[in-house]
Each structure stands twice: as C-alpha cells, then as structure tokens.
Design goal:
Number of helices: 9
Shape: globular
Order of helices and strands: EEEHHHHEHHEHEEHEHE
Number of strands: 9
Helix content: 40-55%
Strand order of the largest sheet: 6-7-5-8
Structural class: alpha/beta
Radius of gyration: 19 Å
Length: 263
C-alpha cells in the first residue's frame, strides 16, 4: 500500500535481523483497499525478517497444507530456483499472507473494502476477502504453480514491462514481432503507460528491441514462463480440476478480477 504524507505514521518493529522502520498508511478510520503482488516480487531470504514474529506460524501452515518446505523457500533458496513458477508463487503467497496478518494484528488498517492482486495476487486477494480459506488458497496456488511449471517446461518463455507507451503502441510492437514469426503478446495492462508483454525469449526480445528504439524503458520480469499467453494452455486442465474442488463463499469485501477488472 502506498503511503500518503498526511496520513503516515511511523511504525517500528523488531525482527530477528534487527530493528526496522516502515512508513505505513493509517487507514483505521477510513478503511482501505489492498493490492497483492504477483510473480517477480520474490527475493532470496525475503522471510528472514519475519522469523521472530507471530506471523511465522503461517510458514508452517502453508508447508503443511501444500507439502512444500516454505521455510526453505523464503530463507535459503537462491534467486535462480525462486524464478521457478511453483517456488515463486508459493513464496509470494505466503509472504503476502504474513504481511496482511501483521497489519491486522497491529491494527494498522481498518475495514478492507476491496482486494485485488496481480495475477497470483488475485488468489491472495480471495483469501484476504474471505471468499476462500487460507488452506484452499494455498492448495490452489500450489496446484497452479505445478501446472504452470509443467507448461513452462514444454514451452519456455519470459516477460517484460514496457514503460512509457500506451497499450495500443505495445500492441503494434507485438503484432509486428508476430508477423516476423515471433510468439509474443500483450499480457497485462497495469496502467495507461505500463504494459507487460509475454512470450518466447526471442519474441519478448524483439518487442524490447523495438521499445528501446522508441526510447521506452524496458524492465525484465523475473519469471521463467510466458504467462498469460497461449503458451500456457497446457496448464489449464490441471488448474481447472483444482478449482472445481474449492468452495467459494459470498463476502462483503469486493475482489477485483484480473480478466476484466470487474468486482
């Protein structure tokens, strides 16, 4: 959550690695909306600061629910392995749950009126909104990660964000690249001037080259697959089967959908 100058308060907390200060938006009276991150937000040892907090219990819970060693992922796993989609998704999902739990425990936020997330983050948003349980969310993320890792093994790829151009301009870049035989598409429209492309390594590089020639900034995303493209089709049946086993509950908290931005 972004902080605003007039409503900041400085919160200090102590963790295993020392004392940290964070500027946190105080929304206790006004309420808020929460947005959760997706793949690319992972970092080696990102769980280190949380080891001595009450939220560390969530690491054990997610490990039990999924069969993955989450502590290993968020403490000792290197950057390259964290790029694997199954590792990245479970790590970020767990860290997001811990952060949300911390904010609630310390009464840093008031009523949450809406939740949303970037791709993977939509699953975290569903948990935060109460639409699915944390256990169901963890198992869904594990199934999604496993299915997507299988698909990336069959059709490797990558992603990049193009900054400074409209969606229409980036669509022209991808269309030109496809006309030359590349496999690359617009995957996410994060904002009027931030558009993510996804495809094969060569396809994304072709778009990145065109963007740089137009004096646009290109930011590579630390993922190992062409997510949100036809190259991920192989993951759909396994994820659909996992979704069929989840009970979704009605909730008073709105959840923004990635597909159409509907609530």
């Amino acid at each position: 959550m972004r902080s605003l100058k007039r409503s900041q308060r400085l919160t200090e907390y102590r963790c295993r690695s020392g004392r940290y200060a964070r500027a946190v938006l105080d929304t206790r009276s006004a309420g808020c909306a929460v947005i959760f991150p997706g793949q690319g937000a992972q970092r080696p040892a990102m769980g280190e600061r949380w080891r001595d907090t009450a939220q560390w219990r969530i690491v054990g819970e997610v490990s039990e629910w999924t069969g993955y060693d989450i502590a290993e992922l968020v403490l000792r796993t290197g950057e390259q392995r964290l790029r694997n989609t199954d590792s990245a998704q479970l790590s970020i999902f767990t860290m997001s749950l811990m952060a949300m739990d911390y904010l609630i425990e310390h009464r840093m936020i008031g009523r949450v009126h809406a939740c949303a997330g970037h791709s993977l983050g939509e699953y975290t948003a569903l948990v935060a909104a109460g639409a699915i349980s944390a256990r169901a969310g963890a198992r869904l993320v594990a199934a999604r990660g496993a299915a997507m890792r299988t698909a990336t093994g069959q059709r490797p790829g990558t992603m990049a964000a193009i900054l400074g151009a409209s969606g229409a301009v980036v669509e022209e870049f991808t269309a030109a690249a496809r006309s030359d035989g590349a496999q690359v598409w617009v995957a996410n429209v994060n904002g009027p001037r931030q558009v993510v492309v996804s495809g094969t390594v060569d396809g994304v590089e072709a778009v990145a080259r065109a963007a740089r020639e137009s004096r646009l900034k290109v930011v590579r995303i630390a993922v190992d697959g062409a997510f949100h493209t036809p190259l991920m089709a192989a993951a759909a049946p396994q994820l659909r089967a996992a979704l069929d086993n989840v009970e979704f509950r009605a909730t008073g908290t709105a959840v923004g959908a990635n597909v159409d931005a509907g609530l």
